[in-house]
Amino acid sequence: MAQAKAVAKFWITTTDLLDHVLKHEKRIQLAEPTKDGRIVHRLVSDLFCRYVQLCRSLERCYDQTLQVQKRAVIQQLLEAGQARMLELRTKLQEIELSEFVYVDGALQEQHLIPDDVLAVRPCYFPARRPDELQALLDAQKLPPFIEPGSDAEDGSSSDESEQPEEEQVPVGKGINRPVVKRDRRKERLQAALNLITAHERARQARVRQTNFRLHPDRYYPKPIDEEIVDVPYEFFYRPGQFMLYPVKRTVYNWDFRMKKKDVVHFAYYAPPGWEEQTVRVASVRWPDAKELALKQQAEDDAAAELAQVEAAKRLEEALERIRLNRAAAKIQRYWRKFNALKAQKKHRFDRSKFLGLFDDYEPKLGDALAVAEVRAARRARQPEFDRSFVAAIADEKARILRIRGPALLEDITDFVRAWFREWYDETLAFDLIPEPFQGGTVLIVRGETLTPLEYLALERQKQLDKLKTPEQKKKEADAMKAAKEREQEKKREEKARLKELAREKRARERKEGKTYDFTEPEFMTNAYLTLEETLARYRKDWAFVNELDNLQDLPIMEWITLDKFAEVHQELHAEVHELLKSERELLQMALCKDERMKYKPPKPKKPPRAKGAKGKKRKEPIDPTADLSVESILNELVERNVLKTCRKRTFEDYIGDFNYAAFERRNRLEQDPPPGMGEVRTILQSYLYGMGPLAAPKPKSLCLVGPPGYGKTLLLEAICNETGSTLFDLSVDTCGPIEPNNMAHFLQLVLRAARLLQPSVLAIEGVHRGFYKKVPQPEQPLDPAKLGKHLFKLIVKQLKPEDKVLLVGTSDQPWVAKVGPLKKCFDKILLLPRPDYGSTVLLWQYALRRFPTVPRDLDLSALAKVTTGYSAGQILECAQQVLNIRRRMQFGRKPLQVGELLDHFLAGTTPQYPIADKEYEKFVKWHRKVDKLAKQRAKVMRERQLLAEQMAAKAAGAKK
């Protein structure tokens, strides 16, 4: 209940925000036309930030609204808002001549942070496909897109593949150890089983020991006569064996049985059979004086010797105490030193944490997870409300048909029959009933058909036309033809005039700069008009509905009744049409018989066909896969290894920061800064809005270009995982076994399967191989060019805006491909940027924080400064290989040092270096050739540089 009220109040706040944004846009439309791009950029970026926040609020309302009719309104607003937001982003890209735009000025004015205007994952991702298709897809055993441990992982890492398989290690000359493939899952299970068994045996031993101690009479066995020989248990040590877990050892061979009692030496009674013997009394002899003297001397010697022994013993004890004191003092000294170092380290750690030099990696996500669970539970109830709404519609339609259907059918029939009578009374004829595609009997009820008077006027005109001479007919035809030609000539002149005006405008813009008019259609788009109309219609329809009273989110039955009444009315008109059409034929036959005329049955009219853009009839393409079932298509693609699964990747796994200085460098210093890795993540997410169930513009194809290890494959898998798409692998290796003659049929099969299983992603790793300028000798048997010949015609051109299918290609050597065909196949071509300092810091943090024992105060700043430019794949691989199990076990006595990570790059047999500037410049030059905005921006930057040099030369000449 409380949650429903909160959602209703948030919706009211969102409508106020929408009204505020629309009013702000109206104020912008009142601005004067200007040529200053900075002013336009400021206004459009301000509006773009507002629409981003509006779309986030609308998305949350759409996600949490259960009332079906209200959710339909929010869906229309969300679709229009997202379309408008993407239009404004496109306008900013045209102004800045770059795919990456920066709106820092608007953020400062609105007191926002960059995270407030980032593209986020929509709530309706991943998209759902029909249950039968999903079950059919789940039943297939699909191979992985990237084999574990392969080099094509492109910088991505996996926790399961943290320890690589053992490779052949050279032992001596020409001798290699065999490759041992370890089953790590089996080893983990065996270790867990051993641990559980040890604990269980120890527990049972403790229970037995306790029972013997507390209840000896019950658990002790009876004494036995024979001697019991214990078998001792010895612990033996094997080299290389160590304890995986510190477990307290329990003696398993403890003998709990009572020992045999020694009854002979018992002190309290005489055992049976014991015979006492009498003690003989010996005679006593008194010693003499000499014996007494010797005895006294012996006693004195013994006392002296005892005193000497005692003195030596006391001396030894004193020396032992001195040694113990020294040892204790030494232990205390080292212990105090250890405590002081530990306190100093903790103080330095707390100070660095307070200053924000590093994160403690202990996020408190309890509240966020609780909120997410509540929202997910409410979202999961939406299908239930949809089913209830559909059931209510069906019940209401059945009720209307049962109660009002017969009366409506009779009323429509009576009205049409009265129309027949009126025509017969006034014209002695019966007009044709319009066909259903023209409107049917609905036009008769509305009075939109031909009236009897108009019919009589047409008949008189036909009679007059029959009386005209051929010369008059020819003259009228010539006049009509001349009028038609004059009209066409006016259209041609108007078209030429508009074309000339457009040409003059383009020339004037090239010479003086473009003039931005905020009242033109490029700013007043259909998305903006849709937002206005939908909001106005909502406020009109829901003006008398108190949403806070409908906390159960029940449907409004009055609207359902009106809609279903109109639908039933249309259906009954269709039934009446067939009945009255037969009656009209009978009446016409009777009329012809009375008038003694020949009856001519009317010719059936056919609905007009859809025409193309130029007025020609559209020719439907022939689908050679139309006779194949879905099961057969899937089986064939699985056999060809086209359908594959990908790892669970998200855009958050693409670690990278933003270029926070790009706005000042571009707008104030007039430079062309490279984008950050975080901006690539944002723009890719904005491209994917159209892959969900809501209508939104999206590109048909996308190409990711960058050196190896820059995350191309990771982004491809993130696109598939975020949108819930089916992955089709169309790489050259997959298409290699296909004959060139069957390539067209194969691509048509893939396209049909992609549309059936949409959302779908058609992935092409190494797309440059399909457009080779010169095919390398090793790849000639695969014939890679057969894919590039048909890719645009059979895949890209056939995709429609409403298809949830995206073609994604990756390339690390784009310059070896033909520029024209490759550029034609991809709408968007993105060059992945090199990691800067901020992105490198985040990469090292991500690579090291996966190991809990790594110190959090490691000097990552200096490490990132030295390793700036290394790819994400190199950094992740370095952390994975350096921080192996053996090294992590040594953290207690040998802390991790930054030099160990650097030594991995530099001290190996083959040192690793970041990609050279000259090699990366090849990617930049190629990207400027194929990307229209990048080409224009490079031209503008050259002009600015030339102008700056000219100004500097003039200033130098003036000083002289």
From TrEMBL:
Keywords: Coiled coil
The keyword Coiled coil is annotated on this UniProt entry: yes
Record domain ATPase AAA-type core: where: 702-830
Database matches in SUPFAM superfamilies: P-loop containing nucleoside triphosphate hydrolases (SSF52540)
Name of this protein: ATPase_AAA_core domain-containing protein
Biased composition (Basic residues): 599-619
Coiled coil: 295-332
InterPro entries: ATPase_AAA_core, N-DRC_Component, P-loop_NTPase
Signal peptide: none
Gene Ontology molecular functions: ATP binding; ATP hydrolysis activity
Acidic residues composition-biased segments: 150-168
Residue ranges, annotated region (Disordered): 146-177, 467-499, 597-622
Keyword Coiled coil: yes
